[in-house]
What we know:
Elements lengths: L2 H17 L4 H13 L1 H8 L1 H4 L5 E3 L10 H8 L2 E4 L2 E4 L3 E3 L11 E3 L3 E3 L8 H5 L7 H28 L1 H19 L5 H24 L1
Antiparallel strand pairs: 1-6, 2-3, 4-5
Amino acid sequence: MSSEKQEEIEEVKEITDVIGGYGPWQRRIFIMFVLASFVPAWHNLVITFFAPNIDHWCSRPPSFSNLTVEQWKNNSIPIEKDNGKIFHSHCERYDNFGGKMMNLTTTKCDTWEYDKSFYQTTIINEWDLVCDDEWMVSLTQSIYMAGFLVATIMFGQLADRFGRRPIILICVVIIVTSGLATAFSTSFAMFTVLRFLVALGSAGLLTTGFVI
């Protein structure tokens, strides 16, 4: 064996001695971050349950509260067609309640009722994110993904400067505090800001954990 190859082998051995081989410590770190990665994955998918596609229609005024939902729809909500499907309008009602045969002009809803047969509470019926405000659901998800972008750029640099462990701990604190606070959001703006922070902590944890 040539002297150059012998030196390369010795150098590899020295590097291995420094970083260590695959052992108990590496297994613990691997398992820990595999389990930790479930949390960001759940946060990525949870918007499906925060903002499901639930049926909604113009709400009944107090003078018509004695009508059932079906009676209200049949008498005061116009019929629409889309791709061969027939359904009651989600965003319009007839001008004169309960008398569509007398007046066929329509107006936009100002309040809504929601189908709560499956989902009792969502951000959709909490803040009326329907019709003209339906785009706000996409907005909050876009801001969430922006948190991932910012975290990928920011936490990689911070981890190189201050170390992986303190950055990972900071990200865990961000995820826990903002994730819990999201459940108590009192406005759409608060919900969106907290979702951004959740994404910030989640992406920071994944990025730093992948490197370590």
